[in-house]
Automatic annotation (TrEMBL):
<keyword id="KW-0227">DNA damage</keyword>
<dbReference type="GO" id="GO:0046872">
    <property type="term" value="F:metal ion binding"/>
</dbReference>
<dbReference type="InterPro" id="IPR003265">
    <property type="entry name" value="HhH-GPD_domain"/>
</dbReference>
<dbReference type="Pfam" id="PF00633">
    <property type="entry name" value="HHH"/>
</dbReference>
<comment type="function">
    <text>Adenine glycosylase active on G-A mispairs. MutY also corrects error-prone DNA synthesis past GO lesions which are due to the oxidatively damaged form of guanine: 7,8-dihydro-8-oxoguanine (8-oxo-dGTP).</text>
</comment>
<comment type="similarity">
    <text>Belongs to the Nth/MutY family.</text>
</comment>
<dbReference type="InterPro" id="IPR005760">
    <property type="entry name" value="A/G_AdeGlyc_MutY"/>
</dbReference>
<keyword id="KW-0004">4Fe-4S</keyword>
<dbReference type="GO" id="GO:0000701">
    <property type="term" value="F:purine-specific mismatch base pair DNA N-glycosylase activity"/>
</dbReference>
<dbReference type="InterPro" id="IPR011257">
    <property type="entry name" value="DNA_glycosylase"/>
</dbReference>
<dbReference type="GO" id="GO:0051539">
    <property type="term" value="F:4 iron, 4 sulfur cluster binding"/>
</dbReference>
<dbReference type="GO" id="GO:0006298">
    <property type="term" value="P:mismatch repair"/>
</dbReference>
<feature type="domain" description="HhH-GPD">
    <location>
        <begin position="35"/>
        <end position="186"/>
    </location>
</feature>
<dbReference type="InterPro" id="IPR015797">
    <property type="entry name" value="NUDIX_hydrolase-like_dom_sf"/>
</dbReference>
<dbReference type="GO" id="GO:0006284">
    <property type="term" value="P:base-excision repair"/>
</dbReference>
<keyword id="KW-0408">Iron</keyword>
<dbReference type="Pfam" id="PF00730">
    <property type="entry name" value="HhH-GPD"/>
</dbReference>
DNA sequence: AAATCGGGGGA
DNA sequence: TCCCCAGATTT
């Protein structure tokens, strides 16, 4: 039996029931695909429900403010996805007159839509036979065909896309693409795949060489760098605080944070007190300094480990430009700050 | 080609 | 600890 038929048969029996499988509306499929980039279904599901509820159509998403979209995205990470989602909604609404792109090539013009997402939308919504290659597909194909080319090399990218494109059922591209991803997600898993009930073991090179755990091959990535973040939580005598918008390049772009003082190593109470005395919002007026977390919080991102301290600075005066404490929850903040807000008693 | 961009969860 | 997740974009 052909690979494509076998995987589609498996899918018809084993597929999970998921909300985005009940529609072919390109807006909903696009939304789900962006949310699910580098994100497990379990983590992305509540966000999908929230976005559909808040923005039932792409026009409503286009009319929203970016700050509102980021607030809804808060906690999901990779925030450029949210910014690009919003920008593309405006693009489709205002430039394309509300007509969603209906083919692979045009879909690539949407910000945040690359080869994978364009292939997914084109196949699922418009029956275009273009193969998806996500983390699941890399794993399934590398194991079954015993391919040792690193999946995160440019050679690997081309090789796996070409192979997937040869395998795809050109009459059922939507089913094939979703089938191979679902198979990778719930059966041909990274750890402890369910080979004992797998219909592909007879032809699976990795299985027959007893080398399942050796696939896929991947180049090592650089180790995370350590950074030392000191958030300054001002509290004025009228119960207000300072939040700043993160501008520029790095992480958490356009999200809000307490004023940040980054140091090149962990800093103790006395040293930080000297530092903060010169802060523009202090100006030598009396203040009380306390450290919220005696144990440094290590917030781990893919490429950075943030050694984080929250310093509470209480003032006996008002602060210009400050916001009332109770309004903080209106702002999109990184989850490390969101966690602080939930546990700190202002 | 390599680095960057989050956060959660599993072993 | 390290690795992975319905990847895309920038450097």
């Amino acid at each position: 039996m052909k690979f494509s038929k076998k995987i589609i048969d498996w899918y018809s029996v084993n597929k999970r029931s998921l909300p985005w499988r009940e529609t072919k509306n390109p807006y909903y499929i696009w939304l789900s695909e962006i949310i699910l980039q580098q994100t497990q279904v379990k983590q992305g599901l509540p966000y999908y429900e929230a976005f559909v509820a808040n923005y039932p159509t792409i026009f409503q998403l286009a009319e929203a403010n970016e700050s509102e979209v980021l607030k809804l995205w808060q906690g999901l990470g990779y925030y450029s996805r949210a910014r690009n989602l919003h920008a593309s909604a405006k693009y489709v609404t205002n430039i394309l007159n509300g007509v969603f792109p209906d083919n692979y090539k045009d879909l690539l013009n949407l910000k945040g839509v690359g080869d994978y997402t364009a292939s997914a939308i084109a196949s699922i919504c418009f029956n275009e036979a273009t193969a998806v290659v996500d983390g699941n597909v890399y794993r399934v194909l590398s194991r079954y065909f015993g391919i040792e080319t690193p999946i995160n090399s440019s050679k690997g990218t081309k090789e796996f896309k070409l192979l997937a494109q040869e395998l795809i059922d050109k009459k059922k591209p939507a089913e094939f693409n979703q089938a191979i991803m679902e198979f990778g997600a719930i059966q041909c898993k990274p750890q402890n795949p369910d080979c004992h009930v797998c219909p592909f073991t007879k032809g699976c090179i990795a299985f027959n060489k007893n080398k399942i755990a050796d696939f896929p091959v991947k180049l090592k990535s650089a180790k995370a760098k350590k950074k030392y973040f000191n958030f300054v939580v001002f509290i004025s005598n009228d119960n207000k605080t300072i939040l700043e918008k993160r501008e520029g390049k790095g992480i958490w772009q356009n999200l809000y944070q307490f004023p940040l003082i980054e140091t090149n190593k962990e800093i103790n109470y006395e040293a930080f007190k000297n530092l903060v005395e010169n802060h523009k919002l202090i100006q030598k007026q009396p203040f009380e300094l306390s450290l919220y977390n005696e144990e440094v919080i290590i917030h781990k991102l893919s490429h950075q480990h943030l050694y984080t301290k929250f310093w509470i600075v209480s003032l006996e005066s008002k602060i210009t430009g400050a916001i009332p404490i109770e309004e903080i929850t209106d702002y999109a903040v990184p989850i490390v700050i969101g966690n602080f807000l939930e546990s700190f008693n202002f």
